[in-house]
Specification:
Elements lengths: L5 H30 L2 H7 L4 H23 L3 H25 L6 H25 L24
Length: about 150
């Protein structure tokens, strides 16, 4: 396993913390609406059931992806892609629900926009941080140009 720079390590841990904290918050809020009191459901207003269920279940994936970021599990970046894609798909279905005249809360539109963009950014960040450092063409890792201090081939 290659060593990573301090900046990459910090970035990885920040992404992990964001994913885990966001996942735990999602589980708490979604769980309150789904399994809480009638007061919690009334406070949620015109919530859309499939959106709340998706977000609640995705909260578990958020936590797992965050742990994966922290522990450098390679598949965690693909999990982030799946979460982003799933959020975008549910957001699209939610948009159809709205266009068909279904009841909804405006804050759900903002929340789904935020979720989708956040996970797209986390997925992109995970791939960015996982990239292997490449040296410019013609430069050895030692910093010498190719051909320097090497016997010529005749």
């Amino acid at each position: 396993m290659r060593s990573e720079s301090r900046a990459i390590r910090i970035g990885r841990y920040v992404m992990a913390a964001v994913a885990v904290v966001f996942g735990l918050m999602t589980l708490r809020e979604g769980g309150a609406v789904l399994f809480g009191s009638d007061g919690a459901r009334q406070a949620a207003g015109d919530y859309v059931g499939f959106v709340v269920w998706f977000n609640f279940l995705a909260g578990f994936a958020y936590v797992v992806a965050g742990l994966g970021f922290a522990l450098r599990w390679k598949w965690s970046r693909w999990l982030a892609v799946v979460i982003a894609a799933g959020s975008a798909i549910v957001f699209g279905i939610f948009a159809l629900h709205i266009m068909q005249g279904g009841a909804y809360e405006t804050r759900t539109v903002a929340a789904m926009t935020f979720r989708t963009l956040l996970w797209a950014a986390l997925a992109g960040g995970a791939f960015f941080l996982a990239r292997t450092p490449r040296s410019p063409r013609g430069i050895r890792p030692t910093g010498e140009p190719e051909g320097a201090n090497t016997p010529s081939r005749v």
